[in-house]
């Protein structure tokens, strides 16, 4: 019978063929399970053949096409699959319409009055209980175009996925065999039923080689010179070869010298005179073999799109049919979009991406040759020159190279079962095979399957977002620890969800809900019954995996049944991990802001309780990330004095605490190091706010420091600023009081409301401020400079005066002295305040830190009388010295010319600058210690915060007169007298002034000017609405700091008084004086104690009689080493998961990266191995010294020294080429290489190039007068890239000193510095102490 109905079923529609399809397929939505094609067009046009039984097929692909035209367009779903006998089937599904949901109360007749809307259906419900209406569209394209006009639900589901979800199709389908004349089955969508079917995919793996003489080929611009494919059904390799027009005319018909990796393999070589003939033959081969899946290495990014682009280029130039749509089972290919081309009817599968997604640890390289060597102990074939050279000069070698690439792909897949594994994921989830390796896509489809028919979910990104904090992150150490145990708090946040039954639909109002509830620590409540969607899914996945593991274990390892069930349990594990990962993602459909906050609060409470439980058995706790070290925090020292100082300086004032033991959440582990990462600050308090927002002083339990590799961000707002790790929390106003959010979610930071009362100061002891300052100097007066003696000047004092020098200088008449005690209410007190108030904005001091001679201080100003008063104040306080006023700029007037709208103008003003000079070292030290030294280091003297208000007024008057302004043209004079602007480049001064104003209850704003790197503080009467916070990621590679503050767990950044919350996490360590068996027993004791305590915690804190919280003793490090970064550590594991082991665990160090030299990998790994095995530092030092000596002598193969790096785009596309790019450009131009996008050459730095090489080059085609690149290289031949060492001419002399710096110095220094060694010491061979002293 002939095919009938729905117009002509063949080919593409006029509006939707090929490239004209919409670019963003993500806009295409799903279809209806309750409509028939007769609702769209006349039923008389539809005829379905009578069924001849039923057919079950494993689904290999689901796609759709648009048929009809104009208002008569309609979608047709195409299901492709194979029967249990591996026969191919094509099923056309009619009548399935696209749809989405919208809130019923948001719709009316006008809203729905669109031609593309074909109907509606009421009676649906969102997961939050909102009444929804289903809205049907004519085509997926139309629905995608109108969805944003609605508050839509499930409007972003791809149309083929909609069918899979609505019909609950996982593995396969069962359909009646209504066959058309060509054998295609055509059915109404109501007849599609899910079925479990196993069948074998037919896979074609292919790889193309392209003429690359003109650089890296793109967009089909260069010929495909050969391609190789492998058909899985025939186990057949075929090489297609187009003879080079300008070559030697060789036409190899076999590859007799090729050494196959697999057994009994063979290859069929097919040679063609023209590229077009070769391409046509390959397309015919695809049509004949009809593969379900096309794959290769980096297939989606290069081979597949380039092949299609090349067909589009060649097709118009030949009589052959090279329409790229031929490769599709439906005659339709979408070349654009994300994730590579969409070849309708076939799966486009990238083996590289799929392989990466099966690896649980990062490999140093995912290049095919690197993975081949790792998996098969076989790499790619090597060739010299470029592909174009091989094509013309040695085509047999080219074909061997091409064949090897495909064979590597096939054998890697055979060994790892990559495609089979992801097909297991597909069948479990019910997604398309090409989507299976992408976690977000996979989990999305899994969830949609689960909720279909019960709830409708929001479209992605439609939920209100709020940062969801992941597992606890632990504080690092620097150095070596003994017997470090790892306790793993398993899947904390998912287990929190399950314990409190957290899900969007289980959230209830405790005031109106009568049933049993769980309560989260933040006050959110969830019903206890029935189980929520999230709990159901987690339980199902856990049960399913255990069942698969049980089935696996009932078979012999190595058997086909064992392997199949092992793949299935691993597939379920992938879904579990992916689900856990997206539950806190604000674009996930089940994300709910209140639920996320509740789960985060629960997780934090679990961590806090784990800390408490650990403390009960005598173990301490550590804390996590916070602010950069330059942030000024507001503290009170043990003497009660307010201090606003950088947090790194506060940390330095602390004292060492005892060891702490570390436990990890997830796979992150670290250990605290006393004296290096955490300090006690006995008697110190932090300015903090309580839950009511009231400012109070609270004791600082610890100051913590560690390195971080996390992103660091600066947040600026009119209230102030801070610089923190991105996951750090700000305190902000919330609906029910104060709450915490991440920097990304700060709308308005919370400014501390004031400074609690402080003890007033009546007398200043100058000695207490200056004490501790000293300067070393060389004294050779009596013995000569060659025999000079190092001496030290210090601050000394008696009951009256303070001086700088030596003790006996007290009795020397010429010694400069300053009064020790200054009464605030006296004239001396006023003098001190005026001097410091003027010095802060206008002064400078030269001490031993900034000068080698001429020590002293000065204050600059144009007002002579102003300086004269300061001169008198100075004379009042200092003895045996004078101060003079000099002219530092003798120009009495300055004229500035400028342009206005009406022409040129000028202004003349007094520019005579005067300076009060106080040229003695004591004056310099005096001002430095009271108020800072450089313009960026100035600060408010601490005693100012303890002055009465009128004395603070005096200080502020001098401060503003120095560098402030009271000019406010738009305001009254009275306003101007009450307010001022003050500008400074000192962050510490900006913080101090801000807090002084806060203490005085004065409103003010802060603005940072990036162009001037300065802060402007402006006082005001009222706050106006300002700009939104500005968040900027900043470069930071160093320490971050935190304060553990009792009670409130927050502290204040002085720049505006912004309140910051400190993070927390649980840590444990056992210490060195414990045997392995004792360490194991203690670890189990800790585990048992903490787990037993969770029962009471869950019941008392959450209202849960049952819980899922469990901490497990996972592994024991005999020796653990960390080099100061959170994820840069190594350890010698001696026990893991119940078994004695002898293994080295290395994480985060450079040696695992793919962009570092082989010598770096080797040396760093060897050093780390020596450390964790307890080798003495003398041995380590000797090893490194020998390596460095050999390196400097050039006794190192270039392959080991070369620094690899990837090329991300065309070399010509780099506007500012890096050294690596320049090296690649030079190599291509002068060495005959062909590096381009996707290449990963190695680079070496050159010391020089012998002139003979330049002479040889210029005797040929290169002329520095006309060749810019050659001229650049000749002028400075500093770098070159290569793939193989023999590509570098002997005339190129490597700069081994630079190579040593680039490859070893940084990576090795980061390791050995944690042991107390320096690079310079190791390089020179100086003596070092033993490793034991650092443990």
TrEMBL record:
Uppermost EC category: transferase
The UniProt record lists the keyword Hydrolase: no
Coiled-coil ranges per UniProt: none
Catalytic reaction annotation: DNA(n) + a 2'-deoxyribonucleoside 5'-triphosphate = DNA(n+1) + diphosphate
Entry's EC annotation: 2.7.7.7
Pfam family, one: DNA_pol_B_exo1
DOD-type homing endonuclease domain segment(s): 835-1002
Region Disordered: start-end pairs: 1-21
Keyword line: Autocatalytic cleavage, DNA-binding, DNA-directed DNA polymerase, Nucleotidyltransferase, Protein splicing, Transferase
Record CDD domains: DEDDy_DNA_polB_exo (cd05160), Hint (cd00081)
Record SUPFAM superfamilies: DNA/RNA polymerases, Hedgehog/intein (Hint) domain, Ribonuclease H-like
NCBIfam families in UniProt: intein_Cterm
Similarity remark: Belongs to the DNA polymerase type-B family.
Record-given protein name: DNA polymerase
Protein's organism: Haloferax chudinovii
């Amino acid at each position: 019978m002939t095919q009938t109905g729905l117009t002509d079923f063949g080919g593409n529609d006029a509006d939707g063929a090929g490239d004209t399809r919409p670019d963003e397929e993500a806009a295409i939505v799903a279809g209806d399970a309750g409509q028939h094609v007769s609702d769209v067009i006349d039923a008389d046009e539809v005829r379905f053949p009578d069924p001849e039984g039923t057919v079950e097929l494993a689904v290999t692909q689901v796609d759709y096409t648009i048929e009809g035209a104009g208002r008569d367009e309609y979608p047709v779903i195409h299901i492709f699959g194979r029967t249990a006998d591996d026969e191919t089937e094509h099923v056309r599904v009619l009548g399935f319409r696209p749809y989405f949901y919208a809130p019923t109360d948001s719709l009316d007749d006008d809203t729905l009055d669109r031609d593309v809307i074909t109907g509606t259906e009421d009676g649906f419900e969102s997961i939050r209980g909102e009444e929804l209406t289903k809205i049907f569209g004519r085509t997926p394209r139309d629905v995608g175009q109108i969805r944003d006009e609605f508050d839509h639900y499930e409007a972003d589901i791809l149309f083929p996925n909609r069918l899979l979800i609505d019909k609950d199709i996982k593995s396969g389908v069962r359909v009646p065999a209504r066959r058309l004349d060509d054998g295609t089955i055509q059915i109404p969508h109501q007849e599609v039923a899910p079925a479990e079917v196993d069948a074998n995919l037919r896979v074609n793996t292919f790889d193309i080689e392209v003429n690359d003489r003109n650089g890296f080929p793109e967009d089909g611009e260069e010929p495909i010179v050969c391609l190789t494919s492998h058909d899985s059904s025939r186990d057949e390799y075929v090489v297609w070869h187009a003879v080079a027009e300008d070559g030697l005319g060789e036409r190899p018909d076999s590859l007799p010298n090729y050494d196959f990796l697999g057994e009994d393999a063979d290859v069929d070589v097919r040679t063609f005179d023209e590229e077009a003939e070769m391409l046509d033959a390959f397309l015919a081969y695809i049509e004949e073999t009809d593969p379900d899946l096309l794959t290769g290495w980096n297939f989606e990014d290069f081979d597949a799109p380039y092949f299609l682009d090349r067909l589009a280029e060649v097709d118009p130039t030949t009589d052959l049919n090279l329409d790229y749509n031929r490769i599709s089972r439906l005659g339709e290919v979408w070349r654009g979009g994300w994730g590579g081309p969409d070849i309708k009817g076939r799966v486009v599968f990238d083996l590289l991406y799929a392989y990466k997604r099966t690896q649980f640890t990062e490999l140093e390289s995912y290049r095919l040759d690197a993975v081949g060597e790792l998996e098969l102990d076989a790499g790619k074939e090597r060739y010299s020159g470029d592909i174009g050279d091989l094509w013309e000069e040695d085509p047999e070698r080219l074909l061997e190279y091409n064949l090897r690439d495909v064979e590597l792909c096939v054998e890697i897949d055979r060994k790892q079962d990559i495609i089979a594994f992801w097909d297991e994921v597909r069948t479990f989830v019910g997604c398309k095979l090409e989507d299976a390796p992408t976690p977000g896509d996979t989990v999305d489809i899994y969830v949609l399957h689960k909720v279909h028919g019960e709830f409708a979910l929001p479209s992605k990104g439609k939920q209100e977002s709020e940062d969801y904090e992941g597992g606890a992150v632990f504080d690092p150490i620097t150095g070596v620890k003994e017997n470090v145990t790892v306790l793993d708090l398993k899947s904390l946040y998912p287990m929190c969800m399950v314990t409190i039954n957290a899900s969007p639909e289980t959230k209830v109002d405790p005031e109106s809900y009568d049933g049993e509830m769980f309560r989260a620590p933040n006050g959110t409540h969830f019903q206890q019954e029935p189980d929520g969607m999230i709990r159901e899914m987690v339980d199902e996945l856990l049960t399913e995996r255990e069942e698969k593991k049980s089935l696996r274990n009932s078979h012999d390892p190595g058997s086909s049944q064992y392997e199949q069930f092992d793949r299935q349990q691993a597939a379920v594990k992938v879904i579990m991990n992916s689900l856990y990962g997206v539950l806190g993602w604000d674009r996930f459909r089940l994300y709910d802001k209140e639920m996320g906050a509740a789960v985060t609060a629960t997780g934090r409470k679990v961590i806090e309780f784990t800390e408490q439980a650990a403390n009960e058995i005598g173990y301490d706790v550590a804390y996590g990330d916070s602010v950069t070290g330059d942030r000024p925090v507001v503290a009170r020292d043990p003497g009660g004095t307010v201090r606003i100082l950088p947090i790194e300086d506060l940390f330095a004032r602390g004292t060492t605490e005892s060891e702490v033991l570390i436990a990890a959440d997830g796979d992150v582990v670290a250990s605290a190091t006393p004296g290096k990462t955490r300090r006690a600050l006995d008697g110190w308090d932090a300015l903090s706010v309580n839950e009511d927002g009231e400012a109070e002083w609270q004791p600082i339990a610890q100051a913590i420091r560690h390195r971080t590799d996390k992103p660091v961000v600066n947040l600026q707002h009119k209230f102030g600023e801070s610089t923190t790790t991105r996951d750090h929390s700000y305190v902000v106003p919330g609906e029910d009081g104060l709450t915490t959010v991440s920097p990304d979610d700060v709308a308005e930071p919370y400014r501390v409301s004031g400074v609690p009362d402080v003890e007033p100061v009546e007398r200043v002891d100058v000695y207490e401020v200056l004490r501790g300052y000293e300067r070393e100097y060389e004294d050779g007066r009596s013995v000569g400079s060659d025999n000079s003696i190092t001496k030290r000047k210090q601050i000394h004092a008696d009951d009256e005066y303070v001086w700088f020098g030596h003790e006996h200088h007290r009795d020397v008449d010429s010694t400069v002295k300053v009064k020790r005690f200054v009464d605030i209410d006296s004239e001396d007190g006023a003098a001190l305040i005026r001097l410091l108030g003027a010095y802060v904005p206008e002064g400078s001091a030269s001490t031993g830190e900034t000068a080698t001679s001429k020590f002293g201080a000065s204050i600059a100003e144009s007002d002579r009388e102003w300086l004269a008063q300061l001169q008198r104040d100075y004379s009042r306080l200092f003895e045996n010295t004078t101060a003079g006023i000099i002219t530092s700029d003798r120009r009495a007037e300055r004229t500035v010319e400028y342009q206005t709208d009406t022409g040129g103008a000028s202004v003349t003003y007094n520019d005579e600058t005067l300076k009060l000079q106080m040229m003695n070292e004591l004056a310099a030290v005096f001002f430095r210690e009271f108020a800072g030294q450089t313009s960026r280091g100035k600060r408010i003297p601490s005693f100012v915060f303890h002055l009465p208000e009128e004395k603070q007024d005096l200080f502020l008057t001098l401060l503003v007169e120095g560098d402030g302004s009271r000019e406010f043209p738009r305001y009254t004079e009275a306003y101007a007298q009450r307010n001022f602007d003050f500008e400074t480049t000192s962050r510490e001064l900006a913080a101090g002034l801000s807090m002084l104003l806060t203490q005085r209850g004065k409103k003010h704003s802060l603005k940072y000017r990036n162009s001037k790197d300065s802060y402007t503080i402006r006082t005001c009467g009222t706050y106006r609405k300002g700009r939104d916070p500005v968040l900027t990621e900043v470069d930071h590679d160093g320490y971050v700091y935190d304060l553990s503050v009792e009670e409130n767990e927050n502290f204040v950044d002085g720049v505006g008084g912004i309140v910051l919350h400190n993070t927390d996490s649980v840590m444990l360590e056992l210490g060195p004086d414990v045997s392995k068996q004792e360490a194991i027993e203690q670890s189990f004791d800790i585990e048992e104690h903490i787990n037993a305590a969770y029962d009471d915690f869950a019941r008392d804190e959450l209202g849960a009689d049952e819980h899922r919280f469990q901490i497990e003793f996972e592994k024991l490090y005999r020796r653990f080493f960390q080099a100061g970064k959170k994820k840069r550590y190594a350890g010698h594991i001696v026990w893991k998961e119940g078994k004695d082991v002898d293994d080295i665990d290395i994480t985060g160090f450079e040696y695992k990266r793919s962009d570092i030299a082989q010598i770096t990998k080797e040396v760093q790994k060897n050093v780390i191995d020596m450390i964790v095995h307890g080798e003495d530092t003398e041995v380590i030092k000797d090893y490194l010294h020998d390596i460095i000596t050999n390196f400097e002598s050039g006794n190192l193969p270039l392959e080991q020294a070369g620094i690899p790096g990837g090329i991300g785009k065309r070399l010509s596309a780099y506007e500012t080429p890096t050294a690596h790019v320049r090296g690649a450009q030079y190599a291509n131009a002068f060495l005959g290489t062909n590096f381009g996008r996707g290449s990963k050459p190695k680079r070496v730095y050159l010391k020089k190039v012998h002139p003979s090489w330049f002479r040889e080059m210029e005797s040929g085609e290169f002329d520095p007068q006309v060749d810019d690149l050659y001229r650049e290289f000749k002028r400075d031949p500093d770098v070159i890239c290569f793939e193989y060492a023999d590509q570098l001419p002997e005339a190129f002399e490597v700069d081994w000193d630079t190579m040593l710096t680039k490859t070893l110095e940084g990576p090795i220094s980061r390791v050995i510095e944690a042991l107390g060694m320096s690079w310079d010491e190791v390089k020179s061979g100086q003596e070092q102490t033993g490793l034991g002293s650092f443990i």
